[in-house]
Every structure is written in C-alpha cells, then in structure tokens.
Amino acid sequence: MTKVEKIFVFNFNVLLFLALSLFSLFNALLFFIPVYITALGGSETAVGFSAGTFMFLAVISRPFTGAMLDKYGKKKMLLIGMAVFCLGNFLYIFTTGTFSILFLRGVQGIAWGCLVSGIYAFAADLAPETRKVEALGYFAVMTSLGGSIGPAATEFIYLKSNASLSFISLGVTALICILFLTILKEKKQVFISNPDIPRQKITIITKSVFAPSLMGMLFTFCSGSVISFLPILGHVRGIENV
Fold first, then answer.
1. N or C terminus of the chain: which is more exposed, having fewer CB within 10 Å?
2. How do the residues of the chain divide into helix, strand and coil, expressed in percent and rounded to 5?
3. Is residue 38 exposed (0-12), middle (13-18) or buried (19+ Cβ within 10 Å)?
4. Is residue 21 classed as helix, strand or coil in its secondary structure?
5. How far apart are CA 177 and CA 81, in angstroms?
6. Could you tell me which of 26, 172, 177 has the C-alpha nearest to residue 93?
C-alpha cells in the first residue's frame, strides 16, 4: 500500500501564511497607491505610470533575479527582496509628490520580481511529489485570499485614520513576511554533473510557453487595470469602501 504524503507539515504551513501575508501586501499596495496619488493631487496618468512602472520593472528583472535565486539560494534572495519591499512601505510616509512615489514603486517592482519568482519556486519545492498539484492548489487559495484581505483592510484603516497609518500597517505586514521567511526552511537542491552530457544553451523564449504566457499577460492586463482604477472611480462618484 502506497503511503500518502502529508501536505500540511510545519514548513508548508509557514509557506501558506507567508503567501497570505505577501499577496495581501502586494494587492493592498496595488489598490492603495492610486488612492494616495489622487489624494496628493496627482492625475490619472500618474496613477497609470505608477502601476506600469512597478509591473514593467518586475517583469524585466525576473530573468536576472531568477538566476540569482538559483545561485545564492531562494531564502537569502527572498529576505533581501522583502527587506527592500518593507523599507519602501515606510518611506511612502515621507513622499510629497508623484515622482518620489514612482521611484519607490520602481524599486519595489524589482524586489517583487525576486519575491514572486522565489515564493512560487519555494512552493514547488516544498509540495510533496505525489500531491504536488493539490498542494499548489492550496497555495493558490492563499494568494487569492490575500487579494481579498489586503485591499479591504487597507481601505478600512485609511478611512478610519490616515495614509501614514495605512503605510505603517503595510510595513508591519512586510515585517511579518520577513518573520515567516526566517522560520521557513529551504529544501536542499542536489545537482549531479555528468561530463558525458553536453551542456545545453539557456533559452529564455520557447514556443511551448508562448500561449500560456500570452494568456497570463492578457489576464493580468485586465485585472491590473481594474484594480488600479476602480478605487479612483469609486471616490470620484462618491462611493466609499470600494
């Protein structure tokens, strides 16, 4: 009789809570930055640039951060990326114009390229081989749940207090992510070199990934546009708690 591998072991449970905290933070910023720029007197164009700068740098940095994850280790690079992300959240308190916000969003975009690549690789490593799809399904649930909790909690804090306290709460959330990362244990990767097997060229773009990549791009284009501009539309029309 085949032994059923457990999914909810301590290490994977820590990863699930990390995913919940990290994606709550990501979606909260994606939602709140447009509101904050508008409150500072910024235009809709500035809002679009803030989202575009973040995502553009997150995308172009991934091939480089992915290589660094393999070279220096996932946990170490995730801690560095999370520290940068955390610092940016606290620095938003001192921003007074759109240029400084765009700069911080760009820096956080590079950090996010490292974070999202690393955490998905972590999930693939820690998921048991015989139940990998099921385990990754639970991981996806936590990322989606973070997309619901983050914006709602940040909007609630903003309406009850001010933007500074909202950014402080986001910074604290980032510190919680760092705490989970310090607890998380990285799975050791064993590489066996065989001189008889010729080295293959590294290919970034292959035909097999074109279709799913295009689908992912179209989906995130739609969802990112809605998440960025829906809060502004709500405030313009006098609708609270969007």
1. N
2. 80, 0, 20
3. middle
4. helix
5. 11
6. 172
Asked if 75 contacts 187 with a C-beta cutoff of 8 angstroms, the reply is no
Which long-range contacts does 42-45 make (Cβ < 8 Å, 24+ apart)? 42/98, 42/101, 44/229, 44/232
91: Cα within 13 Å, side-chain hemisphere: 15
Q: How many domains does the chain divide into?
A: 1
pTM over 0.85: no
Domain extent for 72: 10-188
Taken in order 110, 210, 223, 39, the sign of the CA dihedral is positive
Torsional class of 108: left (φ above 0), alpha (ψ -120 to 50), beta (otherwise)? alpha
Quick one: pLDDT at residue 232?
67
> What would the pLDDT profile of 137-162 be if each residue is shown by its tens digit?
999 999 999 988 998 899 899 989 89
Would you say residue 180 lies in a domain? Answer: yes
- Inside any domain, residue 214: no
Residue 201: exposure state from Cβ atoms within 10 A (0-12, 13-18, ≥19): exposed
Task: Report the C-alpha gap between 137 and 149 in whole angstroms.
Answer: 19
Q: What is the CA radius of gyration of the chain?
A: 19
What pLDDT digit, counting tens, does each position of 41-60 carry?
888 788 888 888 888 888 88
Mean pLDDT of the chain: 84
Nearest alpha carbon to residue 73 among 108, 13, 4, 122: 122
How close are the terminal C-alpha atoms of the chain, in Å? 53
